[in-house]
Design a protein that fits this description.
Keywords: Hydrolase, Serine esterase. The active site is at 152 (charge relay system), 228 (charge relay system), 261 (charge relay system). By secondary structure, the protein is an alpha/beta fold. The chain has one domain (3-281): Alpha/Beta hydrolase fold, catalytic domain (Rossmann fold, 3-Layer(aba) Sandwich). It is built from ten helices and nine strands. The protein has a nine-stranded mixed sheet with strand order 1-2-3-5-4-6-7-8-9, sandwiched between helices. A hairpin with a 2-residue loop joins β1 and β2. Bound molecules: glutathione.
């Protein structure tokens, strides 16, 4: 490990024979101290590097929501899969913020901000794609067999990051993703602030636009609750489905009647997502 990869342990909890841990580190990409969580299954050891799923959370979340509420550890332990959950934005004094829950801290949207004041710290795209996996693969017994998943804003992050980096992730999945942020209130607000008014810059981070233009396919699964309050105005899975049809992208999209936007939905289907990723990681 080089000095670029100095990490400080914050918590350790044994879980299903493996370990749930939190660390902080100084991020050179985000220019602030960041926290992440990692679940290491019992199979992970110096002589046995395990594949790793990167989980991107939604608005208002930290590295903790998924690890506390998704109930993923039992199946991750059985499958021998590590899970890494970063925070959802840069943090700390001096980091630009907004009064709204959907902009600033807790709402990094997994893009590289080009607009002031956000461009000093808000580089979540580079952090997730480059700095974090470099650090994780240097510091823990995990391999470079990667998958990516996320929820809502994090579902948007997972889909766009996978499509912008073909070959980097073996599979991608999302719960209740923001499928067409260019036309959704959450996305329009964040993209205007972080990327500016020119919508050409937004297209590169819109899952539906990317899927419509895709010629290289990463296996993709999306699950959406039919009783999600954000479904019609913010999430728009029908737009992603239409885009997949246009490019013949093999998207497995499922709508589940009665489920809402919460972690009660995620925990109900997380096992299916982990098994989907395991089938592509092995
Ligand atoms: N209306 C909600 C929107 C935020 C929200 O629903 N966040 C989702 C992701 S988009 C979440 O995971 N919240 C944290 C949790 O359920 O643990 C609020 O004001 O907090």
């Amino acid at each position: 490990m080089t000095t670029d990869h100095v990490i400080e342990n914050i918590s350790v909890n044994k879980s299903f024979g493996g370990w749930n841990k939190q660390y902080s580190h100084q991020s050179t990409t985000l220019n602030c101290t960041m926290r992440f969580a990692i679940y290491l299954p019992p199979q992970a050891s110096k002589s046995n590097k395990v594949p790793v799923l990167y989980w991107l959370s939604g608005l208002t979340c930290t590295d903790e929501n998924f690890m506390h509420k998704a109930a993923a550890q039992r199946v991750a332990a059985a499958l021998g899969m590590a899970i890494v959950a970063p925070d959802t934005s840069p943090r700390g004094e001096g980091v630009a913020d907004d009064e709204g829950y959907d902009l600033g801290m807790g709402a990094g949207f997994y893009v590289n901000a080009t607009q002031a004041p956000w461009n000093r710290h808000y580089h979540m795209y580079d952090y997730v794609v480059n700095e974090l996996p470099r650090l994780i693969e240097a510091a823990f017994p995990v391999s470079n067999k990667r998958a990516i998943s996320g929820h809502s804003m994090g579902g948007h992050g997972a889909l766009t990051i996978a499509m912008l980096n073909p070959g980097r992730y073996r599979s991608v999945s999302a719960f209740s993703p923001i499928c067409n942020p260019m036309t959704a209130p959450w996305g329009k607000k964040a993209f205007t602030a972080y990327l500016g008014k020119d919508q050409a810059a937004w297209q590169a981070h819109d899952a539906s636009e990317l899927m419509r233009q895709s010629t290289q396919f990463t296996p993709a699964r999306v699950d959406q609750g039919g009783a999600d309050d954000f479904l019609k105005e913010q999430l728009k899975p029908e737009t992603l489905e239409a885009a997949a049809k246009e490019s013949n992208y093999p998207l497995d999209l499922r709508i589940h009647e009665g489920y809402d936007h919460s972690y009660f939905f995620i925990s109900s289907f997380i096992e299916e997502h982990l098994r989907f990723h395991a089938s592509h990681l092995s």
